């Protein structure tokens, strides 16, 4: 969107290192209109120093927006941390059942409401009553689902962290995740989407065989629902990192975590990534 649509509209976009923190001050130009943040970052899960970014941006009169989808608006209080615009893909936790196409933008002031709300009307967008009723129904169980998803995901992520074939678990509640200390400072929980990076000795073919051998984690796109999902990212690169097909993204659903761990264990053995006997 930044390289295509926005560019054609004459909007200049500059990306930044998600761990830049207060260093964002050096990137703010006279024409900077908005700082757009996402924490933790999609797929590679970097936790950003949102309060430091807010302080630097506000010092120059620049509003800050946050994609708060991952924390479902629950485990990170965007407005309390100075964010003016909080966006969520309600497809994930609010919908909760992988069957809703809806998003939300919440703002912390009347002035911001007038700017964002009028753009919404000018663009002719509307949300259908059926979609809104699904979101309202999802909200009734959001708290219970998040508690269960958080506990199950931590159990699965900690088990993965112990496996020899895994180099890194990118889950904000684990110390191996970039920005983990910021997560401890600013967040009150974690949800169900995270990634693992296999050791360099594991080939991209083995990663694919592992994914194909999984029975409970199915390949899918609508994350944050009741079912566990898995997705490889063969071409994923970051400015100073290339994962060469060794990064796999997971969504833990409402199934029993011990069943999910058993599924991961048998798939590692079938893909010959790790001997069953070596799996704790
Ligand atoms: C999933 C996700 C989105 C987009 O969700 P859709 O279901 O594709 O609308 C946007 N931002 C973050 C941080 C997400 O995790």
From TrEMBL:
Its EC number is 4.4.1.13. It comes from the Bacteria. It is an enzyme of class 4 (lyase). Pfam families: Cys_Met_Meta_PP. Belongs to the trans-sulfuration enzymes family. One of its GO terms (biological process) is L-cysteine catabolic process to pyruvate. The gene is metC_3. Keywords: Lyase, Pyridoxal phosphate. This is Cystathionine beta-lyase MetC. Its cofactor is pyridoxal 5'-phosphate. GO terms for molecular function: cysteine-S-conjugate beta-lyase activity; pyridoxal phosphate binding. The keyword Ribonucleoprotein does not apply. SUPFAM superfamilies: PLP-dependent transferases. It catalyses: L,L-cystathionine + H2O = L-homocysteine + pyruvate + NH4(+).
